[in-house]
Each structure stands twice: as C-alpha cells, then as structure tokens.
Amino acid sequence: MVNSIPFLFCYTIYMEKIIEKILEIDKEVVLVSIDGRCASGKTTLARKISQIIDCNVFHMDDFFLQKHQRERHTIPGENVDYERFLEEVLIPLTLKKDVYYRAFDCKDMKIKEGSLIKFKKINIIEGVYSNNINLTNYYDYKIFLDVNSDIQMERIMKRNTNHNDFKNKWIPLEEKYFKEFNIKNKCDLIIDTSDSFVF
Question: Model's pTM, two decimal places?
C-alpha cells in the first residue's frame, strides 16, 4: 500500500518516518531508491538522510547514456545506462563489495576516472530512472518525490540556464517513463514537495 504525505506535514515527522523505515529493514544490505520528478528534491533528500544515518549515496545522473547509446533516449525509461549501473553499483552492493564508482561527465560526454567507495550496509540510490524496470526489484524501500508542474519550472529556472531543454525535452521523457511503468504508484512512499521550504 502506498502512503502519500503532503509536504505540509512537519519536516521532522516525515524524515523520522523515512529513517525509521530504513533502519527497521532487517537485511545485510539495504537498498533504497528515491525517484521522482526533476526539481522535486531527490538529491537534497538523499543528502539529508546521509547526514542522519551512515550510508552511501549514488546518483543516477552519473549514469546518463554515453554517446553511442543516445539513440535509445526516447524510449520510456531508457534515458540512463542501467546496464552499467547494475554491473558497477547494484550487483557489487548485493555481494557486499566495495564499488568502483565512475561518473559520466555530460560536458565531456565521457566516463570520468573512478574512485573506490567502501561498502556500507545502507545505500541510497537517487535520481530519475532509479526505478528502471531492470533495477527496481533490487530495492527494499522506494520513495517517490512529487512536485506541482508550476513549482517545478520555477525551481528549474532558478538553478538551470538551459531550462527550455528541461521543459521541451527532459521533462516529457521523464513523464513518459512515470506513466509507462506506473512508477509513482509502485513506490512505498510518496512525498509532495510543492509547498516545501526545505527542497
């Protein structure tokens, strides 16, 4: 059953709920996804969780498609290199291994030199497409961040100079993904951050 929390709820209350839920998962490896609309606060939420509990945070933005893969970006849910994320991050984590993390640089259009991230029991995977159908079954707890479209554009215009690309290209692709795979309703927790002063 999906629990939907309007962000008018006290920040402390919903954060306590998330932390409590994560800590009660009785497994040797805990994988938590934070998916949702761009500018809804996914990165911020992941960072705030990591300030409270000892965990690793991985970003789907670091796994955008390489140049030779770009022809598939219009296919719902395919605008991320989920194969590389699965091989380099999720599978090692399930085996309780360290992760050799290589982020994709969108400016240079190539994968940067990697660094070793030590294994931790709790791992947060944040970003749009984190619940790609090839990845979602790995997660123990799934969070979806929602945001009103007008507020979303206000936030994007404040932080991105290329906001027209988001409006005309990236947001429509994300919305196809959400709709095609019913992402929002398959998550364990939905938070509307439209009225948030935190995100």
Answer: 0.90
